[in-house]
User: Which sequence fits this backbone?
């Protein structure tokens, strides 16, 4: 090959933010969330209440989540509007159970909160580059995978951490290989405030 020097730079990137909010979660709250009535979901279990961050018992947690969303909207999105939590629910994956690939509709930024201890080994979150259908399937060789071509990236959850990511990002949860249940909270958010422009006739107050 004649080319000796070349340079490749990323044009865009997909963010995911992590923040420790252990200071906002008490042992009583952990027990309170575990005791919430649950119903069968896909294969796992989901709280009956799908607005758990509105519960007064979880006030300190919802305040910390709002703080994390404020950081995301300012530092990642760079917007002046606020992101506010819409629905929020708790999840429990027993042994052998994960969560198939999905994305979160009617939401801008979604999140997971690992409010209690996690089993060992912990089932990871797998973020997929492709939404579903691949028009052209060009699979990179394993040894040549990089940021530009990797089909998936994994995230290892940590106890007391909140994770924020774009709601349209496809993701799945690996099966829980441990005998212990895997607990988490998930939530969606939407923008609040004015978006668009009056003169462009695309103004919208939310
Ligand atoms: Fe999800």
Assistant:
């Amino acid at each position: 090959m004649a080319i000796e020097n070349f340079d490749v730079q990323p044009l865009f990137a997909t963010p995911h933010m992590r923040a420790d909010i252990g200071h906002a979660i008490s042992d009583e709250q952990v027990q309170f969330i575990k005791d919430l009535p649950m119903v069968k979901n896909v294969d796992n279990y989901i709280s009956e209440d799908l607005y758990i961050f509105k519960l007064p018992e979880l006030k300190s947690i919802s305040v910390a989540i709002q703080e994390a969303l404020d950081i995301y909207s300012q530092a990642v999105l760079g917007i002046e509007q606020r992101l506010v939590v819409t629905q929020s629910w708790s999840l429990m994956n027993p042994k052998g159970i994960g969560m198939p690939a999905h994305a979160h509709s009617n939401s801008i930024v979604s999140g997971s909160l690992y409010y209690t201890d996690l089993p060992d080994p912990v089932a990871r979150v797998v973020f997929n580059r492709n939404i579903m259908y691949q028009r052209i399937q060009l699979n990179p060789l394993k040894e040549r995978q990089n940021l530009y071509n990797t089909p998936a990236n994994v995230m290892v959850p940590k106890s007391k951490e909140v994770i924020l990511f774009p709601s349209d990002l496809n993701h799945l949860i690996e099966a829980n290989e441990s005998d212990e249940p895997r607990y988490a909270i998930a939530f969606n958010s939407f923008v609040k405030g004015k978006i668009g422009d009056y003169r462009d006739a695309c103004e919208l107050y939310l």
Remarks:
- The pocket of fe (ii) ion is lined by residues 102, 104, 171, 186 (CB under 6 Å).
- The chain has one domain: 17-205.
- The radius of gyration is 19 Å.
- The longest helix spans residues 59-76.
